[in-house]
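Write out the 3D structure for:
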Amino acid sequence: MSEHLPLMQTTLFCGAIISTVACMSVIIQHARFSSVRRAPLSLLFWRSCTNFVFSSQFLVTFAVQLSLPDREQGEFWGGMMRFSGLCSSLAFLTQFTALASELWLLMICVDLMLSLTQPFRSASMPWYHALVWSLSLLSALSMVLLRVDGPARIHICWIKQEPGLSSGNGGGCSADWFQQPANLANWYLFFGWVLLIHSFGVFVLLYASARLQDGLLATYEIRASTIKDLRLYVLTGLGYWTVAAISYILLYVYCYPAWDADHQAWDGFLWVAMAGVVASRGLVDALMWHYTANASISAELAWRREHGAVQASIIGSRPASKPWARPFGVPDALREEWVRQLESNLGGMRQLESIWREAGGGRREAGGGRRK
């Protein structure tokens, strides 16, 4: 009996548990500390929330697979008629959360770009939420209405595999695989968006690096930290999808091998690698959030210890009202530089006015002497 299916499902289950716990830790920390409730950490927080739901569904997938009778254990339940409704629902959830997660990375880049060009703008969180959730919902609904939802080749419920190529068939791959409807759906529903979002992220990273390279010494730490965090977000995302692409391409090249104990260990590794990449999505973003939030949380904890504050701050309180909250982020840095530049320009104008008056007064005195 083929063993690649239980191998894939077990790896997904274990990885999903780790990612779910990691995302939950982000949610708990976000509720405990008001200092992390500002961009970009607040945007990355919502990315972790979507990853929490994305990872949780694989626990359902594993539970349903275990519930099958022994004679059906070698077959993915998503392809069975009696589970078509459940698989369609999970496919909808997969598409919605997977795209929403990527769109929150886009919002991080958009927020920085707006901060660079409009440092005095007001917060845009309501617009970010409207854009992310509406686009994600539209994409998931399109997948269902186009009837391309179902069991995917990697044994999850998402965009269904193309006709004529079943996972683990061990046979030749279809020569016209890119022309199949489901493969096109992969691109216009998800992977095309991923390419556009990360291309824009690289552009914003290069633009911001050049824009924030020069500035006042007082804002250097903020500017350097902003570039460092953005570089971490963008490059980690690129790294994740590079590994995912390599894993998927290898599976395709080897035609989704039907691995069992008598086959090569390499075939089993391909399935484990693919499942590990999918399941680790939430863990990767949670680690990024904790890494970039550590400084803010440490500062808030130090302030609480100093002032004897033992209770958690109220959710929704503004970190700027706390003594430990200093100006943070690109808008604050650019506003400070703009104000200082304006003060410098005003000082220069006053100096020129003083010089002009002195020069004008001298000429008037000289003219008066000549008239006498």
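The beta strands are 149-151, 157-159.
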